[in-house]
């Protein structure tokens, strides 16, 4: 089945450009468009997209609030990529903390946009790990995040897996580094997410940096 994508951006030209790029691929189809975050929840309920590519800055409801609304209102929600002009935008970080799975740069090359959508749909790798690392690293030493990490009480192997997740490694790559099976890695990743109360790898990595579990650099 092709990856279904919902495009949300207040600029029609941006939506048209993304549609042209994504629909040039045989395994991706754009199933809908919206001009503001306020329209996202009903469209997601009706279209059931695999991925939502959503502008982070919109006039009525921005990508942060729209992300929260989708995750709050939709069972088994889609993957959410926020679309942004600047990767170090505070809005991007807040959208990631709200539950977005990653972000797309509007200036990205077509191949990078396609790759990001595919990775988001698969959910087994971190998008733009260096950028997420730089966004989160500046917020290290968060006492609440540190307490949550301590309560999680990760096992030694789970801690190893989380460290490799912060570097953007996929399950297969982690399995190769730790000399264990890919299914075992998947089990450890699921345990890490559950213990941290994280929706996905992005939120787990943010928790790792904010708590000081891993150091920036």
Automatic annotation (TrEMBL):
Pfam families for the chain: GerE, Response_reg
A single BP term in Gene Ontology: regulation of DNA-templated transcription
Keyword Glycoprotein among record annotations: no
Molecular function terms from GO: DNA binding
Alphabetic keyword roster: DNA-binding, Phosphoprotein, Transcription, Transcription regulation
Domain (Response regulatory) ranges: 4-121
Residue stretches making up the HTH luxR-type domain: 147-212
Residues carrying 4-aspartylphosphate: 55
Gene3D superfamilies: 3.40.50.2300
Chain coiled-coil ranges: none
Keyword Oxidoreductase annotated: no
PANTHER family: TRANSCRIPTIONAL REGULATORY PROTEIN NARL-RELATED, TWO-COMPONENT RESPONSE REGULATOR
Protein name: Two-component system response regulator
Species of provenance: Streptomyces sparsogenes DSM 40356
């Amino acid at each position: 089945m092709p990856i279904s994508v919902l495009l949300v951006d207040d600029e029609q030209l941006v939506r048209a450009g993304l549609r042209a790029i994504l629909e040039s691929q045989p395994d991706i189809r754009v199933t809908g468009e919206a001009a503001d975050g306020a329209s996202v929840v009903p469209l997601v309920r009706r279209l059931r997209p695999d991925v939502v590519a959503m502008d982070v800055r919109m006039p009525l409801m921005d990508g942060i609030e729209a992300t929260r609304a989708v995750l709050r209102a939709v069972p088994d929600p889609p993957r959410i990529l926020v679309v942004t002009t600047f990767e170090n935008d505070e809005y991007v970080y807040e959208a990631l903390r709200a539950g977005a799975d990653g972000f797309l740069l509007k200036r990205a090359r077509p191949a990078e946009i396609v790759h990001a959508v595919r990775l988001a749909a698969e959910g087994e790798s971190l998008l733009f790990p260096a950028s997420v690392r730089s966004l989160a690293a500046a917020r290290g030493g968060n006492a609440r995040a540190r307490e949550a990490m301590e309560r999680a009480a990760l096992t030694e192997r789970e801690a190893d897996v989380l460290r490799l997740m912060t570097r953007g490694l996929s399950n297969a790559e982690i399995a190769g580094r730790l000399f264990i099976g890919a299914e075992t890695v998947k089990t450890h990743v699921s345990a890490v997410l559950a213990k941290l109360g994280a929706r996905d790898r992005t939120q787990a990595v943010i928790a790792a940096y904010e708590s000081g579990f891993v150091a920036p650099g």
